[in-house]
Specification:
The N and C termini lie far apart (51 Å). The longest helix is centred in the N-terminal third of the chain and has 27 residues. This protein is an alpha+beta fold. It has a 4-stranded antiparallel beta sheet, covered by helices on one side. It has a 4-stranded antiparallel beta sheet with strand order 5-6-8-7.
Length: 238
C-alpha cells in the first residue's frame, strides 16, 4: 500500500527462508527436498528436510557407496549453507558462526542447524524431566561414547526436542579429528546414532511421544554434539 511500510511477521520470514533454502538446494543438487521445515529458537536456526536424495546419491547407495554419497552431500551442503547464511542473518537479524548437518539416508531425511558462538539459550524445562533425559542419554550413550560433562535442552516443542551435550569426545576421537580422519569419525558417528535408534522405545516412553526421526550433529572443534528428536505429528503414546 502506497506510503506504508509492510513489515513481515516472523512466520512469514521463516516461510520465505524455507522456500529460499529449497531453491538453493535444487540449484546446487539438481533436486530440492519435497518438504523443508524451518524452526527458530534463541539464536539457533533448524531446517528439517524430507525426500532429499538425488538420483546420483540413489545410484551410489544402490552400489553400497553410502560413504561416497555422504561425502558428496557434505561438500555441496557446505557450499550451499555458506551461501544461505548471509540471507538468514539479513532476514532474522542474527549472525551465525557455525553450521552442522546430519542425514538419514534410510529414511530420506536430513537436518541443518545454524548456530552462534555465544548462543546460551536453553528451554525452561522441569528439572526432573531434564535430569531423567540426561540420565537416559548418558546410559544409552555410555556403550558408544563418553559421558558428557554438561547437558541442556535447547529446544522443546510438540515437533522437536534438541539437546546440547559438552565435553563428549574420547581421546581417540580427538586424535582422529586432529589427524583429519573424517571417514573414521563418520563411521563412529553412524554407530553411535544406531545405538540411540536401538533404544528409541526408552526415549519414547520418557517423552510420551512417538519418535519419527533422530539426528546427531557433531562439533568436533568445540567438543560437543546436538542430539535432535523429531516427533510424529499424528501419534502420541497410548
Amino acid at each position: 500500500m502506497k506510503g506504508e511500510v509492510y513489515i513481515k511477521s516472523n512466520q512469514e520470514n521463516l516461510v520465505y527462508l524455507s522456500s529460499k533454502f529449497s531453491k538453493l538446494l535444487k540449484r546446487r543438487f539438481g533436486k530440492g527436498p519435497e518438504a523443508c521445515n524451518v524452526f527458530l529458537k534463541g539464536n539457533r536456526f533448524y531446517v528439517y528436510m524430507r525426500q532429499f536424495i538425488t538420483p546420483a546419491e540413489d545410484v551410489l547407495m544402490n552400489q553400497g557407496q553410502l560413504e561416497l554419497a555422504h561425502n558428496f552431500r557434505s561438500t555441496v551442503m557446505n557450499s550451499v549453507t555458506q551461501e544461505f547464511i548471509p540471507e538468514v542473518s539479513k532476514i532474522l537479524g542474527i549472525s551465525f558462526d557455525y553450521f552442522f548437518h546430519d542425514w538419514n539416508y534410510d529414511k530420506n531425511t536430513g537436518i541443518l542447524l545454524l548456530d552462534q558462538a555465544q548462543s546460551n539459550h536453553e528451554e525452561n524445562i522441569d528439572n526432573s524431566f531434564q535430569t531423567s533425559l540426561f540420565h537416559l542419554i548418558e546410559n544409552v550413550g555410555s556403550k558408544y561414547t563418553k559421558k558428557p560433562a554438561s547437558f541442556k535442552i535447547v529446544k522443546f516443542t510438540q515437533n522437536i526436542c534438541a539437546t546440547e551435550s559438552k565435553d563428549v569426545l574420547l581421546p581417540l576421537e580427538k586424535l582422529a579429528y586432529e589427524k583429519g580422519n573424517v571417514d573414521l569419525l563418520l563411521h563412529h558417528a553412524w554407530n553411535i546414532k544406531d545405538g540411540y535408534w536401538k533404544n528409541k522405545e526408552q526415549f519414547e516412553s520418557l517423552f510420551g511421544r512417538l519418535i519419527e526421526d533422530m539426528f546427531i550433529m557433531w562439533d568436533y572443534k568445540n567438543n560437543r554434539n546436538y542430539l535432535v528428536f523429531i516427533f510424529n505429528k499424528l501419534d502420541t503414546m497410548k
